[in-house]
Amino acid sequence: MRRLVVLVAAIVLVDTMFYAAVVPLLPYYSHHFDLSKSAAGLLAASYAAGTLIGSIPAGWLAARIGPRNAVLAGLSMMIVSSVAFGFAQSIVALDVARFVQGVGGAASWAAGLAWLMARAPANRRAELIGTALAAAIAGGLLGPVLGTAATQTSPKLVFSMVGLLGLVLCAWTLTEKGPAPSHGEGFAAFRPAFRNGPVRAGMWLTTLGALLFGTLGVLAPLRMDHLGASSVAIGAAFLVSAGCAAASSPIVGRFSDRRGWREPVLLGLCASAFWVILLPIPESPALLFLLIVIADPFFGLSYPSAGALISSGAEHVGLAQGYAFALFNIAWASGQVIGEAGSAGLAQATSDAVPYALLCALCVATAMAVHRRGPRAAPASQLS
Questions:
Q1: CB-based burial of residue 381 (10 Å sphere; 0-12 exposed, 13-18 middle, 19+ buried)?
Q2: What angle do CA 34, 212, 122 make, to 5 degrees?
Q3: pLDDT greater than 80 at residue 159
Q4: Dist. CA 253–CA 103, nearest whole Å
Q5: 322: Cβ–Cβ under 8 A, 6 or more apart, which residues?
Q6: What is the model's pTM?
Q7: Contact 15/133 with Cβ under 8 angstroms?
Q8: pLDDT class for 375, splitting at 50, 70, 90?
């Protein structure tokens, strides 16, 4: 079990590292290709758009050919797209490379997490999802470092090295025995899942977290650049914040398994509502740096509980875990696309304060809905 946890963690770490590398690269490419704020948001959102479109096919692929083979397919797309991104000479090529990476990420994430849940005890789901997400956050931590290295050296060199890491992961995956294909249900099996309360709750919490991260990931680096911060400082802000989030994710998952999902979710929502409304205020890069470091860890506090809710709810209605994490991917990608491209476009038409204020309102409304569920919500493993 431990080897599989480490493998899945490594897969999501490398995938997320490539995804998050764009943060310090946004100002770099904005200057290089003379991008508007909306065009920069589109570049950032291309990965999530690929994940959104690829999520259902990824779940089907994991059920039909087995999680291990689906992971290999996702890693193969990551290898090709990362090298293509490094050698791209136009904004269109960059957008397409990130889109393909998103499709590959949908396959490797859905299959990897389904593989993990196939072996996980029911009372450890949130903890193991939290561990995988901690690795993803660590990838988010290393991603800005990767992007900063690309701005200081060469995108060709840096993203070719990411492709090499993908080859190593493929070889490692081949050493692990995967579960047999479930073949599973047709797409009609999603209907009862969408009617399941824990699945709907988990998907919305995932979407909201992605909205927060997506908006922060585009508007904050562009704002820091506008205030005169270097790409190194921008990368450092997200490096430190991701480190804090990675440390807390398994702890939150373990707490959710033992005490219930409601308390960590409420804490994350209330803290997010407070900090997100402050993000457009700073007029100095140092103060904005501090706010990013504080706010970012709270934005993902609901993720371990949300993943466990989706997994348990899907199991209750007889939906294969590959499909369950396709739903997780859909929820995440929807929030990222709207947060990155939508918030950037709205900020360009109005100001950064408008999308941040809307996110604050969504966090408050969701916290009120969670609070109305009663004094204590059961652990996700007990909801099936």
A1: buried
A2: 135
A3: yes
A4: 27
A5: 58, 59, 60, 61, 62, 63, 67, 70, 110, 111, 114, 182, 184
A6: 0.76
A7: no
A8: very low
Residue type for position 70: A
Give the length of the chain: 384
Coil, strand or helix at 229: coil
Instruction: Give the ranges where 66-189 is alpha helix by DSSP (H).
Output: 67-87, 91-119, 125-152, 155-174
DSSP state of 374: -
- pLDDT value, residue 349: 92
pLDDT, tens digit, 9 for 90 and up, residues 119-135: 777 677 777 777 887 78
Rg (CA), the chain: 19
Return the residue matching tokens 């949130």: 126
- What pLDDT, on a 0 to 100 scale, did the predictor assign at position 64? 83
> Chain-centre distance of CA 128, in angstroms?
16
The helix (H) or strand (E) run that includes residue 360 is helix 353-371
Could you tell me the two tokens for 36?
Answer: 């508007």
Domain 2-176+184-382 carries which CATH code? 1.20.1250.20
Residue 24, judged by CB atoms within 10 A of its CB (0-12, 13-18, 19+), counts as buried
Rounded Cα–Cα distance for residues 328 and 21 (Å):
22
3-state DSSP helix/strand/coil % of the chain, to nearest 5: 85, 0, 15
Q: For residue 189, what pLDDT band results from cuts at 50, 70 and 90?
A: low
